Amino acid sequence: MLRLFSLFALLFLFGQPAYSGSEHVQELDNLIVSTPLEQSTANTALPVSILSGDELRMKAASTVGETLQNEPGITNQSFGPGVGQPVIRGQSGPRVHVLQNSLGSLDVSSLSPDHANSTESLWAERIEVIRGPATLLYGSGAIGGIVNVLDNRIPDAIPENIVQGAVEQRYNTVNEGKSTAFKLDGGKGVLAWHLDGFYRDSINLQIPGNALDEAAIHEEHGHDDEQGSEGRLLNSNTRARSGTAGFSLVGERGFIGVSVNHLDNNYGVPPGAHEHEGDESAEVRIDLRQNRYDLKAEVNDPFAFADSLRLRLGYNDYQHAELENGIAGTVYSNEGFESRIELVQKPWLFFDHGVVGAQTKNSEFSALGEEAVVPKSNIDSFGLFTVQDIHAETMTYEIGMRIEQQWIKPTDRQESSHTPVSFSTAAIWSVTEQDTIKLSFSRSQRAPDIQELFSHGPHLATASYEIGNADLIEETSHNLELGIHVDRDWLQADFNLYQNWVQDYITQINSGLFFDHDAEAIVASCAGDCLPIYQTQQKDAQFQGFEAQVTVPLWRTDYGQLDSQLFADYVRGRFSDGSDIPRMPPLRYGMELAWNNSDWRANIRMTRAERQDNPGFNETETDGYWQLNAGANYRLHVGGYADMLWFVKANNLLDDDIRNSVSYLRTVAPQGGRGAEMGVRIEF
Predict the structure, then answer these.
(1) d(Cα 56, Cα 122) in Å, to the nearest integer?
(2) Is the pLDDT of residue 220 over 80?
(3) Coil/strand/helix, residue 155
(4) Superfamily of domain 2-683
(5) What ranges make up the beta strands (E) of 153-212?
(6) Residue 435: CA count within 13 A, CB half-sphere
(7) Which of 399, 441, 539, 681 is deepest in the core (most CB within 10 A)?
(8) Domain ranges of the chain
(9) In what helix (H) or strand (E) does residue 64 lie, and over which residues does it extend?
């Protein structure tokens, strides 16, 4: 690795003087950065959602899941305001990969729904959500998709000005949330540098009524004598701060750079999540800290047969403590290292473009304390991948493959080893210059994670006693997808239909037994302090669904344009025996009206989510809801040296009681009530 690092450094230092980044940044606006071949959104078989610019600034929130919750096929699995995991096409946890600049987050967010993701989106330049076959580039088994948060913490170009940057201030009425953030970029000659930081805090979340869904509580427990907070969700306050510094050496042939980030995140877990019998008043908080170090490098034309060579390295020293009334109960630690190298090829044989690469992951995981349900383990994996494409007159073909090996070595237990093999193929038919039809098929395998294999004990976050299965084999998904893209002056439309057949789908099934805390034994029935026992099993499953988005211009004038947008998404998940897969999102549909001109934008959006009456075995149904949101922003040019972006957005204007079916806390923690967020961003 040291020799490879030295090779990159020598190639830039002996290159030509630094190049300007303006042309490069402008080009990226039309490209999918997360794919090594950097295809445009219109010329790929991938279903892609991209947030950038003012649109991203308006949708940015304190968690990645909340930022993306209105994108096609994406919902937010909240565990109170401090946690928001993206759920893509009904998949979450290890089946959705959240990346920071194309590397994994290297935290423990996939192990439990109350663990926050350490990837922050506040200073993201763009967020790309990719579903479909190309997800195999970043790991096995991301049948939901990948979320790639891209920022400029490691600059890849010299900025136009010696110093440029932005400051931002936000305030949210629903939780008196305040956030202050800044970033600075600069450089001269061959040196570019970056600094950023933020501070965010909030009080308990305002909710429309009672925190408890009394009807669901009665259905689940047979009684409704529990008392919930009224008007505010107790213990849902948050506080976070972060700082990042990075620099790069930039030359005509490429760049090499490093960055360091520190994150502190302290958030409360609402009552009803972690509960002990006789200790329902315990206040549970999670205190998260991490130090992350990254290296990124790229060389243009490194060899006669290659366009570029790219290297990514990431190391994360992560720890969080679960505090009960201020005392640490369980401490999770993860020291993770990930490396990724990609070689983008020039045309060869009958392939027009191609990339080959390798990826490694190594981590030392431990959980110590009363909720340590998984053993201390070393987790290692190595993967090889390639994607190639062929261009014909009106057809484009893409093929890809990934082979991976994973080893999990737990303390005092037998090592577990799995070899996922995945491949994909896709065809794009350019019916006209504006219209395309896309068809893709992929076979994706996922190795079981440490919790699915070795968990054993009470997991109070999900109010269950979990028993893993060390004999699990690879989960195999066969995915078929049809996409239609239309781009006309009078209509822009995207439709995606998909069907996933999953063999040996790994899931936790309610066994019907209970763990009796008083007797410390597994029993068939229990009236005291008990937890239901969930056993990890493998069952065949199917998922089918669609995403649709249609935009029609209604009125165009010299002063701006009025557009209307219709949208809908749906996923249905069932096991092979016909039973429902739990925590699936319901059918959503709605309409948005948006006004745009060169300086300001306003929109109003109505979303209808239907009742989820297929909740899964021993799970509660969730009512449908209406959600009315609105927003506006205005960009003011200050001389020739600064821009001011003023923005305001109103959420849940109907003050509806919104409970997401994908959330573990849907019966005890509704979404926020009526509120408004306002802020200003100054760019210079």
Answers:
(1) 9
(2) no
(3) coil
(4) TonB-dependent receptor, beta-barrel domain (2.40.170.20)
(5) 163-172, 177-188, 191-202, 205-210
(6) 9
(7) 681
(8) 2-683
(9) helix 64-68
Q: What residues contact residue 92 under an 8 Å CB cut-off, 6+ apart?
A: 77, 85, 86, 113, 144, 583, 662
**Euclidean distance between CA atoms 396 and 410, whole angstroms:** 45
pLDDT band at residue 571 using 50, 70 and 90 as cut-offs: very high
Q: Which two tokens stand for residue 122?
A: 């506040």
**Residues forming beta bridges with residue 544, ordered by sequence position:** 499, 572
Is 461:664 a contact under the CB 8 Å cutoff?
A: yes
Strand partners, 74: 88
Q: Which residue has the tokens 């890809």?
A: 400
Other beta carbons less than 10 A from residue 193's beta carbon: 18
Residues in the chain: 684
Q: How far apart are CA 365 and CA 389, in angstroms?
A: 38
pLDDT digits (tens, 9 = 90+) for 67-106: 999 999 999 999 999 999 999 999 998 899 999 999 999 9
Q: What is the pTM of this model?
A: 0.90
Q: Band of the pLDDT at 2, cuts 50, 70, 90?
A: very low
Answer yes or no: are the C-beta atoms of 662 and 87 closer than 8 Å.
yes
**How high does pLDDT run on average in the chain?**
88
Query: Using H for helix, E for strand and C for coil, what is the string for 429-454?
Result: EECCCCEEEEEEEEEEEECCCHHHHH
Fill in the DSSP letter of residue 193: E
Burial of 579 (0-12, 13-18, 19+ CB in 10 A): middle
- The predicted structure's pLDDT at residue 517: 80
Residue 9: phi, psi to the nearest 5?
Answer: -60, -45
Please state whether beta strands 416-418 and 306-324 pair in parallel, antiparallel, or not at all (unpaired): unpaired
Whole-number Å distance between alpha carbons of 168 and 198: 9
82-109 burial, b at 16+ Cβ within 10 Å, e below that, comes to: bbbbbbbbbbbbbbbbbbbbbbbbbbbb
